[in-house]
Design a protein that fits this description.
2 copies of one chain form a homodimer. By secondary structure, chain A is α/β, with parallel strands linked by helices. Chain A is 40% helix and 13% strand. The first copy, chain A, contains 13 helices and 15 strands. In chain A, β7, α8 and β8 form a beta-alpha-beta unit. In chain A, α3 packs across α10, α5 runs parallel beside α6 and α5 crosses α9. The interface between A and B is large, with 87 and 87 residues.
Chain lengths: 398, 398
């Protein structure tokens, strides 16, 4: 039996990270590789109580088919919550998605034709590339620095006519993979040029609530509301296993996203939406999220201290994230991350080689000497042990 | 702000049914329109107990990210359960999906290029057309009768070379919208020609467990295992609000479907998968599903009796389903279903005009005089009242 595959299927490839994680999540390995939130932050008791209340008080509705737009009280909560990011949106603009990954899939479906030019940061979130690829875009990487995407290079790459970029995809807060955050100045410049050029922004913000000392500057979407789709998630502030996210779209675009959503899975599970609406209805998020911030800040500081201690004199550089789950390391010139990973795993520690996160692979380029470290899954003790092991692997490789 | 939409977005349209349901689900309307399972069949107590056990015993894993393939015990249960349909598959061939609607989306992504020829029954499931449309196929309707798709017409429409059909989409058991079931003889003929012509089959089976007196004949996939993707669902045997379905694919095709799944929503909610695995682990389905069958059989008989009684002499014909949720009515020549719906709603009863389910719309064709009736959502009393109202609307229209 010969199956004839669609062209787009030929372009889909196994996730590099997925393959790496298979190796690195072996028992006994301390993993800085995965992007898994710390399970000690999951509000299990609140979920138990909410599940019981939803099923006993409203079980038939929670288990029935429901509207593709999502559960009204949850959409209202999202609209209200976004005020703190300077976004003034109606619940009618909120579409509940099956994780924010689905938001990327829906955006790709309605905005990308085969060959369409789309712009991404350097490096960028791998899952977004995976969601966009099946629609066969031409992905263009925009230069970026420690403050995010470079406004001048973005302006230069907007394109014109049929070659005009369908959108730029940006992750302004505590970015995956780098942990970097766009400054106020950079946001203002990017929003300004997007407005001037009619360039749509797809703004992905799964980590924005995980700030350590101060919230990040207002969203890009708040500055370019008619030209932005904003993606949010409950994965990092409650739990990822619920697969609950949302998008916010201008009214002109919402109906097409809704039709794509309906065709994709009819609606996000009603049960999950009602349980989460029940968990969060009385200010739970405002009490719960500060405990996640405190934990992740402590773990980030432990990792930074371990880097300072273990990597002294080895020629590495790294950033100091102001929130989120990840930090980004530049190895000394000539030391490549993929062969280093083999050595590191043998010593019991794992990370993700940074080259996985570049849309455009440059053989022998500087991106081969980068790596992403997650500071949220391992404990402080594991961070200390793992970082010593990583330093040993680096010393051996130099 | 002008958004440039993808070509496929231009082809996407609001669901006709969705628009109809907005009218027909007004308070006070007896609806035979929706495809909603009866909520009295939802196992609320079993769900409460299972949710409590999953969260108390295994909460961290249930709320964490998980494998895109799905939860292993659930995949094993599915493989085991399919033996009763004559399918001998490995759990490695099972992919858990966010409802079986997602299975249609994944199949479309990996098998349909713009312009690809795909074959469907006449009439067919509207949600499948919505899932396929964004990938821009050429949809060809195959003649069908009360036993399902016509084998000779299917053979004639397979096509050759670049125009060869990528697949035929079939719903052999208690089909949506007609309620019809493929006979053993028809299944054998269709499987035979599919094998001879190397024609892939996408077999959708959400209703197969809902038989009244005897289970349907073995699946098409059991006859053509290397050339079939089988879609199943927990929506009709447990509850649709969980959005839990699955697909079974030959090993040659599975990796691409898995990559498409990962890009679409990373994985189906771990919480829902574990709760359902907990509900069903000790033979629950074998005790529970007979109660759904008995209820739906009783409701179907009530609707058939009401049709016999109320429609006598009006020139309508209808089928007698052997299971499922729907039956199919042919109005007398010249009486069209869409204007009839307006009259019916004024009298307090609703249905779905059959023309919504045809891939190829034929102005003035016989399909404009068909309608789908669901017998599972309304009670027996409502069925009696609603059918008298529908008869009155028909009498007024003749």
């Amino acid at each position: 039996m010969n199956w004839t595959l669609a062209q787009r299927a030929e372009k889909m490839n196994p996730s590099v990270i997925r393959e790496i994680l298979k190796v690195t999540e072996l028992p006994g390995i301390i993993s800085f590789a995965g992007g898994l939130p710390s399970p000690q932050t999951f509000p299990i008791d609140a979920m138990r109580e909410a599940s019981e209340r939803v099923l006993s008080q409203d079980g038939k509705a929670a288990l029935q088919y429901a509207a593709s737009e999502g559960y009204a009280p949850l959409r209202e909560w999202v609209a209200q919550d976004l005020l703190k990011q300077g976004m003034n949106v109606s619940p009618d603009q909120v579409l509940i998605t099956t994780g924010s990954q689905q938001g990327l899939d829906l955006v790709a479906k309605i905005l990308i034709d085969a060959g369409s030019r789309i712009l991404v940061e350097t490096p960028t979130y791998l899952g977004a590339l995976q969601a966009f690829t099946p629609m066969e875009p031409t992905v263009v990487s925009v230069d970026s620095d420690e403050h995010g995407v470079d406004a001048a290079d973005l302006r230069a790459k907007v394109g014109t006519g049929a070659d005009k970029a369908r959108f730029v995809y940006l992750l302004p807060n505590f970015q995956n993979p780098t942990g970097r955050t766009m400054t106020e100045e950079r946001r203002a410049a990017v929003a300004q040029l997007a407005i001037e050029n009619g360039l749509p922004i797809i703004e992905d913000n799964p980590y924005g609530d995980l700030w350590f000392d101060a919230p990040p500057a207002p969203s890009l979407s708040s500055r370019h509301p008619e030209g932005s789709v904003y993606l949010g998630s409950f994965s990092k502030i409650l739990a990822p296993g619920l697969r609950l996210g949302y998008l916010v779209a201008p009214k002109a675009l919402y109906p097409k996203l809704l039709q794509a959503k309906q065709a994709a899975d009819l609606h996000t599970p009603s049960f999950n939406q009602r349980v989460v609406a029940e968990v969060i209805k009385d200010g739970f998020i405002d009490r719960h999220v500060p405990t996640i911030r405190a934990l992740y800040k402590q773990q980030c500081e432990a990792m930074l201290a371990a880097l300072d201690r273990e990597m002294a004199g080895l020629g590495l550089t790294w950033n100091r994230p102001a929130g989120g789950m990840f930090l980004w390391v530049q190895l000394p010139a000539g030391l490549k991350a993929i062969p280093l990973l083999d050595k590191a795993v043998k010593k019991g520690v794992a990370f993700v080689p940074g080259s996985a996160f570049y849309a455009t692979h440059e053989e022998g380029g500087a991106n081969e000497s980068t790596l992403r470290l997650s500071f949220v899954t391992a404990t402080v003790d594991q961070i200390n042990t793992g970082m010593a092991a990583l330093a040993a692997a680096i010393r051996e490789s130099l």
